[in-house]
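B., you asked whether I could sanity-check this one before it goes into the benchmark set. Here's the sequence:
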Amino acid sequence: MNTLHLALAILALLVTPGPTNSLLALAGARRGVLMSLPLIPVEMVAYLVVVTPLLIWGAPLVAALPVLKPVLAGLASLWVARLAVTLWRMPEGTGPSIAPVTARSVAVTTLLNPKALVMGLVLMPVLQAPVTALLVFVLVLPPVSLLWITLGAGLLARAGRWLNRGSALWLAALSLLLAARAMAG
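And here's what the prediction gave me:
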């Protein structure tokens, strides 16, 4: 795999809907694009906190302790389920005063996002140049995050009263998927 192939693989992985992208889209819908931009560096740092050690030490560790993957997937499932319940219980409406998306929720969700495992254990090690792999990731993530925020601001903002419930149902489905993966090992 060369650098271009890695960039395309990371792009494909990051652009797929998931818990972090759902929060970014919801932030865009609630706060608008400009007010949501500070969430991008939060997401970046959270991913790097997970991906960097995985890239450097992860493969040997997971080979030695295969129970780590389902445990991490289980933790991710619980966090996403918590987000879904929180969104379901939120009052309807719009505006920054009730925006459920915080830097903390984006950080924790991203730290537990299974995409980080895939990037750090599967995609990036193939390049065998950790610094280059991390640089590719750092260049690909911001435009993808901005896309999700913009989609939220454009499409979800029009969803009105169904925004919280729809987002909660989506996150609940993701939580169930993660739980199934955790149980499957």
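One thing to flag: The chain has a mean pLDDT of 82. Otherwise nothing jumped out at me.
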